[in-house]
């Protein structure tokens, strides 16, 4: 999209033109944004790994498999400022700390250890961190591992977000155009981030019905959001068959690619 569209969109959220242009310049310099010969901007190579994760929210259940009780472990968890990309990688794949320098997650993602290892490396995990399968924890260790995630909070968060999405969906078509654009972007973007950062735990640890219901509600809301943004994007000649989810992906990728 042209920078004029980004500036106009930023104005919906009280972002000054200068602030938007400075952000674009920084993203260009970092490789997370690139410009074509017509002066239009798109996500750059530096944002591709995170962008791929952001776009996967619609197909979360396809990323999981039946859990047989095994774990994936990473030894040598990143620390300090230099480890921020590694820490982000572990967060995106749902790892939690079991012991000093040891983080784990259930081995219920498709592709198992090899696939998770490749994704972690692509997302920035340090090459010297060890990624391996872990089995036969003692009873105390197994119980502690299963309690690393707050199952009740995850389920409540899914239910709360689904209620917000469904409530917004009911009124979105009656709002003024700019309010509908802003609300669908902010709420939809927050829920997509929630889904992208969901640890995708197996049924034995966190019942998955609320998560599946949230994904379905968000798919319906996404269609309404695209409709709300269509006229605006068409006015700037921006392809919008897959917006605003992919427009939000640009913001989400930029945010996740610059971990605090």
Could you describe the 3D structure shown?
The chain is α+β, with helices and mostly antiparallel strands and 260 residues long. The protein has 2 domains: 1-63 and 149-260, no CATH class; 70-134, Alpha-Beta Plaits. The protein is built from 10 helices and 6 strands. It has helices at residues 3-11, 17-30, 48-55, 84-92, 112-123, 139-146, 151-172, 177-196, 209-235, 245-256, and strands spanning 33-35, 41-43, 71-75, 96-99, 102-106, 130-134. The strands form 2 sheets. The chain has a 4-stranded antiparallel β-sheet, with helices on both faces. The chain has a two-stranded antiparallel ribbon with strand order 1-2. Helix 7 (151-172) runs parallel beside helix 9 (209-235). The chain is globular and about 60 Å long. It starts with a helix and ends with a helix.
In short:
This protein is 54% helix and 10% strand. The protein is of the alpha+beta class and 260 residues long.
Q: Secondary-structure blueprint of this entry?
A:
Layout: H1 3-11, H2 17-30, E1 33-35, E2 41-43, H3 48-55, E3 71-75, H4 84-92, E4 96-99, E5 102-106, H5 112-123, E6 130-134, H6 139-146, H7 151-172, H8 177-196, H9 209-235, H10 245-256
Antiparallel strand pairs: 1-2, 3-5, 3-6, 4-5
